Amino acid sequence: MSKREVRLMQGNEACAEAALYAGVKFFAGYPITPATEIMEILSRKLPQVGGVFLQMEDEISSMAAVIGASIGGLKSLTATSGPGFTLKQENIGYAAMVEIPCVIVDVQRGGPSTGLPTLPAQMDVMQARWGTHGDHPIVVLCPSTVYEYYTLTVQAVNFAEMLRTPVIVLSDAIVGHLREKVVLPELGELKIVNRKMTTVAPKDFLPYKADEDGVPPFVNYGTGYRYHITSNNHDEGGFPATNNHQIADSLLRRLHDKVEKRRSEIVITEEIMTEDADVIIFAYGCTARSAYSAVEEARKKGMKVGLIKALTLWPFPFEVLLKYSKQAKHVIVPEMNLGQLAGEVERTLKDCPVKVTRLNRIDGRMITPEQIVSTISEVI
Amino acid sequence: MATHVSEYLRLDKMPHIWCPGCGTGIILGAVVRAIAKLGYKRDDVVVVTGIGCSSRTNAIIDFNTFQTTHGRALSFATGFKMARPEMKVIVITGDGDGSGIGGNHLIHTARRNIDITTILVNNGIYGMTGGQYSPLTPRGCIASTAATGTMEPCFDMCELVKAAGATYVARGTAYHATMLEQLIAKALEHHGFSFVEGIAQCPIGFGRRNNQKTPVDMLNWQKDHAITIAAAAKASPEELAGKFLIGEFVNKEAPEFSDVYWEASRKAQQKVKEAR
Amino acid sequence: MGKYTIKVQPKWCKSCGVCVAFCPKQVLVLDDAGKASVQNLEACIGCRLCEIRCSDFAIEVGGENGE
User: Fold this and answer.
1) Shortest CB distance from C14 goes to which of B4, B20, B175?
2) Containing domain of residue C43, as a range?
3) In angstroms, rounded to a whole number, what is the distance separating the alpha carbons of residues A134 and A82?
C-alpha cells in the first residue's frame, strides 16, 4: 500500500516540507513577504527534528549563519524575496568561492527596490545568475507548480551538496502562495544526496584538491583535520594565493567546470506538445502555467503550438531550444520582466531561422493565457 | 617551560603579513597563550574572522579556521556554533570589521548571549586599506580620509556590548599583554557571549599621522593612558582626564542561547514522540 | 651562564625595537642587520615581556621554571 500522503498545500509550505525531506537541519532567515511562511513553518518543525531555526537580525546575517552552519556540516537553507536576496548576494558569492553548499529560496516579487510588495514578478532571473560580483558558478531552479516547488527544493539541496555550491530556488509570489493538491513523495522515493566526504588521512588532506568531478571532498572540523577556509583566491591547501595568476585562473575555471560537468543532471526541462510544433512557448515559473493553458487553447484552434518549460534557468538550457531550432518557426518567451531570459533565448537561436518574440508584463499581474494566445495568433 | 606561540602556528605561513611593530601579533599571542594555558585541544577550537588586518590572524594559527566576509564573522560563527555546539568558537575582529560594517551583528550576538568569545583588535584605523578613520578613531585624529582630523566621536565598544547584553566584557591593551591574556582566558571560560577589546597600535596607518612615530611611542601611549578599573575608582577627575579604563567591566551569568534553544528543541521532540 | 635562555628567530623579526625598548634590564639590542639580538643574557630576569610583546613571535625565553 502506498504511503503517499495527499495534501492541499501552499507552495511555500511545500518548500518547507521538502527542505525537511531533503535533510535540511538548519534554517536562518529574516521576515519578508512573500517568503515568510517558509520560515514560520520551519521555526516550528526544525526544533522537532533536532534541527536549528534562527531568526537573525537581518538578511545578511541570515545568509552568513546558513553558510556557517554548513561549514559545521549541516544541510542549510534560507528563504527570502527580492530586497533580501540583494542583501544576501555578497555572502552567496562567498559560498560559491569557498565551495560551501547552501540553498537560497527567492520568492520573487515586483521590483526594483521595495517595488510591488508583494505582487508577483519574475524580475530576479538575472540577479539569481549574476547578483553577486565576480565570475561565479550558480544553479537556479524554478518551479511552476506546488509539486515542482517540492521536488525542486529537494533537488536544490541535492545539487548544492553534490556540487558544493550555492543553489537558488527561484519561485514567485504566485507559486509561493498558491494552494494545490500535492501527492507527497514517500520517504526514500526521491533521491537524497549528501556531500562527499574525504577518505584521506589528515596529513594528506588538502581541502581544495578536487576529484575528477571537479568537487573537493569535504571534512568536518573537530575530527583531526584542521584547515583554513578563505574567500581570497586560494590554493589547494585553502590558504590565500592572491598573487598567483595561475591558481586564480585554474580555481575559477574549476568552479565553473564542476557545474558544467553535471549539466545533463542539472538542466531540467519539459517538452509539452512540441513534437509537431511550429510555435514554441518557452516559459518558466508561474508564467508556464498560463503558457500551458494557452497551448491547450491554441491546439483547440488547430494551431501547432508547444511548450518548453524550463525548470532549470541557470545553467541556461540551450540544448532543448537548439533541438527545435530547425523545426520551429517561432519561439515566444512570455515573462514577468522586460526580457531577462528572452535575451538568452535570442542568443541561443541567433544563427537559426527562428523568430523570437518577447511577451513581457511588469505591472504585478500575471500574463494571461489569452495574452499568449493572442501573441501566437500575431506571429503565425 | 611556558608555551611559545610558535607551537600553535602554521610555520609555513611565517613570517606573517603585518607591518613591523603591529599590535595585532601581540594580541594574537595573548589569545594563543590563553588557549594553551586552558589546555583546549586544537581540534576543538574554531577561529572565525572577517576582513581586515585582525582577520588575517587565523590563517597562521593551527586550529580550525575560516575567514569570512567583511563584518559578518559573528553571524557565520553563530550558524557554526549552533551546528557544532561542542566546539569552542572564537571570533577575532577589528574596529572597522566589528564596530563599523559588522556593528549590527555584534550587538545582536551580544543580546543573544550565545557562547562565542569575541576578541576585537582595536587599532583605531582601517589598516589594510591604508589608514582611513574607523568608528573607533578618537575625534580629531588624522586619517587618510580625515586630513584635518576626524569630526565624528567614537564608540566605547565595551559600553556598547555591555548595553547590548554581553555577559562578559573586558578591555586590555597590547602593552598590558599579560593582563590581556588573563582577561581572554576568563572570556574563553565564560559560558555565554564574551567580549574582549584589545587596544592595539597601528604604527603605519595611525601612529605616523598622529605624532606617535614608532611602535614604542604607541605602546608608551597605551601605558600612559590606560588605567585599571580599580585604580580609576580611587582616582580624581583630574587624574582620569584623557584616560581609558582597562579590566573587567561585566562578568555575570545569564541563560546562554544554545542552551535555551536545545532545551526547547528537546521538549518539542518529546512532544512529537508523545503525540505518536 | 645566566639562568635564562633567549632564542631569536631573525627571519621572523621585523626590527620594530619593542623588545629592546621595554626590556627592564637592557638585555636586548638590535644588531647590525636591525634584528633583535641578545647582548646581556646575564641580566635577564625571565620576565618574558620581550616574548609576549613581540608582534612577530620571534623571541622565546626559556630556562629557570623548568625547561
Assistant:
1) B20
2) 4-63
3) 20
Structural domain total, chain A: 2
Residues A147 and A11 in one domain: yes
Q: Complex ipTM, two decimals?
A: 0.97
Report which of A103, A192, A194, A107 is spatially closest to residue A156, judged by C-alpha positions.
A103
- Domain CATH code at residue A28: 3.40.50.970
Domain boundary at A122, A148, A183, which? A183
A57/B108 Cβ within 8 A: yes
Say if residue A24 is in the same domain as residue A129. yes
CATH number for position A278: 3.40.50.920
Mutation pick from C57, C59, C65, C67 vs chain B, by most beta carbons of B within 10 Å, is: C57
Chain B nearest CA to A249, separation (Å): 21
* pLDDT (0 to 100) of residue C1: 57
Q: What is the DSSP letter of A215?
A: -
Going by C-alpha positions, the residue among B177, C15, B64 that lies closest to residue A207 is B64
Could you tell me which chains touch chain C, where touching means 3 or more CB pairs under 8 A? B
Arithmetic mean of pLDDT over chain B:
97
Range of the domain at A306: 269-379
Q: Is B69 on the interface with A (CB under 8 A)?
A: yes
Is residue A65 assigned to a domain?
yes
Residues of A in contact with B104 (CB under 8 A): 57-58, 61
Instruction: CATH number of the domain at C48, please.
Output: 3.30.70.20
For the stretch A46-80, what's the b/e string if a residue is b when 16 or more beta carbons lie within 10 angstroms of its beta carbon? bbbeebbbbebbbbbbbbbbbbbbbbbbbbbbbbb
C-alpha cell at B7: 607551537
Instruction: Indicate whether A240 belongs to any domain.
Output: no
All cell numbers assigned to B223: 601605558
Q: Is B104 on the interface with A (CB under 8 A)?
A: yes
- Evaluate if residue C67 carries a pLDDT over 60: no
Query: Given a cut of 90, is residue C64 above it in pLDDT?
Result: no
**Residue A178 and residue A278 in one domain:** no
**Which residues of B are less than 8 Å from A242 in CB distance?**
none
Domains present along chain B, CATH in parentheses:
5-275 (3.40.50.970)
In whole angstroms, give the CA distance from residue A102 to residue A95. Answer: 7
Interface test with B, best of C8, C50, C55, C56 (most B CBs within 10 A): C55
Taking the mean position of all CA atoms in its chain, how far away is CA A209? Answer: 26
Does the residue A255 lie in any domain? no
Q: Considering only CB atoms, which chain B residues are within 8 Å of C17?
A: 21, 214-216
- Whether residue B254 contacts residue B111, with contact meaning beta carbons closer than 8 Å, is answered with no
Residue A377: strand, helix, or coil: helix
**pLDDT tens digits in sequence order for chain B, 276 residues long:** 578 999 999 999 999 999 999 999 999 999 999 999 999 999 999 999 999 999 999 999 999 999 999 999 999 999 999 999 999 999 999 999 999 999 999 999 999 999 999 999 999 999 999 999 999 999 999 999 999 999 999 999 999 999 999 999 999 999 999 999 999 999 999 999 999 999 999 999 999 999 999 999 999 999 999 999 999 999 999 999 999 999 999 999 999 999 999 999 999 999 999 998
Chain B hits for A54, CB-CB cut-off 8 Å, are 78-79, 82
